[in-house]
UniProtKB/TrEMBL annotation:
Any Pfam family hit: CLP1_P
Transmembrane feature ranges: 12-29, 74-98, 110-132, 165-187, 215-233, 240-260
Keywords, sorted A to Z: ATP-binding, Membrane, mRNA processing, Nucleotide-binding, Nucleus, Transmembrane, Transmembrane helix
Domain (Clp1 C-terminal): residue spans on this chain: 599-723
Cited function: Required for endonucleolytic cleavage during polyadenylation-dependent pre-mRNA 3'-end formation.
Protein name as it appears in the record: Protein CLP1 homolog
Family label: Belongs to the Clp1 family. Clp1 subfamily.
Entry's Gene Ontology BP terms: mRNA 3'-end processing; tRNA splicing, via endonucleolytic cleavage and ligation
Domain Clp1 P-loop residue range list: 396-588
Gene source species: Pythium oligandrum
Ubl conjugation keyword on record: no
GO MF term list: ATP binding; polynucleotide 5'-hydroxyl-kinase activity; transmembrane transporter activity
Residue ranges of domain Clp1 N-terminal in the record: 293-381
Amino acid sequence: MCDRYSFKKVYIISSEICLLGNIVYLIAVSNPGKRGMTMLAISRFLVGFDAGNRSVCRANVAAMTTSAQRLKYINLHAAVVFVGYALTPGLGSLVAHVDANIFGIQLNKFTSSGLILVGFNLATIVAMLTVFDETVGKQDGPPETPRALLASDALDDPTTLPSRIVRLGAVVFIFLNFNARGILSVFETVNIPLYLGVTGRDPGSTEAVVAASNFQFYLGVLGLGSYVGAEYFRARISDITWLHIGFGTLLMGNFVLVLAPHTLSFTHLTMAELLSIPHIRLVGITTMEQVVLERECEYRVEVSAQAPVTVKLVSGSAELFGIELAIDNEYTLRDQKAAIFTWYGATLQVTGTPEVAYTSDETPMNSYVNIHAQLQKRRELAKLKGIAGPRVLIAGPVDSGKSTLTSILLNYALRLGEKPTHVDLDVGQSSLSVPGSVAATPLDMNCLSIEDGYVLTNPLAFFYGHTNMAENAEHFRSMLQQLARAVKRRLADDNEVNASGCVINTCGWVDGLGYDLLVESIQAFEVDVVLVIGQDRLFSRLQSSLAKLPGADRFSIVKLVRSGGVVPLNSKFRSTRRQSRIRDYFYGSHALTRPIPLLSPCINEYSLDEVEFYAIKDMRVSAGMLPVGQTASEMSRLAVTKLEKTMELLHSIAAVAHPKRHDSRDALTSTSSDLSWLLTASSAGFVFVKEIREADKKIVLLVPSPGPLPSKYLLVGSIKWIE
């Protein structure tokens, strides 16, 4: 075609073919099944056919000129094509949240970027029509004199080349072109999946696709700089030098590829790109060091979600939040802030690149182990007398280390064979269920896990629906009382569990209403040991308040210092952690950093009539609105409100309420009008509202397991999740 028609015509025709191929692709993804696969194959063929023609067109023009003589519009069009190939996947982050159906074409985070590519194809056609210089011809190529105009590689007489050399050159050209096309195909289509793979991100997560797209965009901009460099240096560097530079960097990239680890950080991936843009996509550097800990010291490490760190105990003894590490066993830390402590000294081998890592000899572990020893004495005494064991509540302001101390005390008890009950009242950062829940679960030694928190648990959860207790304090009180009654019934049914007691973690709101709810928690669970971390004011207030309660002599209030290793968390980190907790519920712990998630949730479609959504609201009214002689405390302030099934429910986390006993056989079809039982219903599980199609009267839910829902009653609050 290049010999028969002009370069301009061939290029425009190729762009039109590519435009058609991308339009077919958009249609293909909206037609699942055999038809869609056929259309997808046709789409890829058309795009590949176009790409091959463009490559030949550029090669023909490049063959006519050296770098020093290559006209500016060649680099201009190469840059336009590069934008289409390299930057388009990156621009997908702009449309990652798109989910629409236009004229039967489904536009989502995977297909919308193809629409951008259609736009770039149109831009290429317009550029060819407006910028192309019709006067360019063979006469603009290098003169056939050996050293004229820096063209040291020009031949005196091209016609003297033997046919064998010409055929050999053609074979080499075809071989290089096929390899180049293969490399470019990888660059175009595999970059984002590869980014997700090496960073351990969840391919189904919109945030992960946005991050991968942005990464591609940054690299595309960096690659675009190579064209700027070629334009700037085209009169200073010969063709052969450009070739040496290209193959040299490619060689370096492949060499480092051999040394690449399985997972890479964002920084390592970027460094790799500097060596091999746009050819190699998987290059990186990993680090390994030995950390020697003295007696009663700890190694504090902060690990990001994108760069897991592996820790191995080489010698000595050490523990992570009270769980003992085994010699020569590798433990992978993902997306956490941890402290590995040793009583007698230890040597650790740390592989990876943590965000922060240092050792410290100032730890509160001596006071923590003393607390554990006192609690263990109470447990042993409770077993002998057949009475309740210690009920411990941990209080303190935000970022004081309450969750860490909770884990340490529970893990120490579990290592001794006890079966303590873990209660979590922190609705903002729940460790037992999704955020917005209060939950409890009995533990045993089989629940211990260094990498995944507590495993094999079956918590009882009540869904509050908000991450702030002030959002609906009356509802939180109700959930608190329900959970306390359930925990006390469970302890009463099992002497061993009762003697082991419970450890209660609380939230960091300790002023005003938050303090009142803290005192109510102590009363509801009949707590006898209160541990206060890091605030003298709270310690003093609790001493005063608890002294006024009935049975005040049973309370033991202990003040503990805040660990220097506690890391203050900003609101953005807390929000990200909540999103991670929800993802972990559906896909298993650390789903973003694992090649294969531990759990496989289901996406189920229901008729809008099959489910009902409700919210628990505080119907508080002013004193002037009450009947004569009544007070607000005498009336039930909480009410169950039915919600309309509109797009406002999209992306909501909903709790599936356990049905009433007489409704359990007909949980999905019950039409009982009395819904007051929902005020005290526990959660059978949680679902995510993935899609609502009001026109079709359908709703799509992400559910943790297959099968029908336990009931049609779904409770929602203010918690949203963008998958």
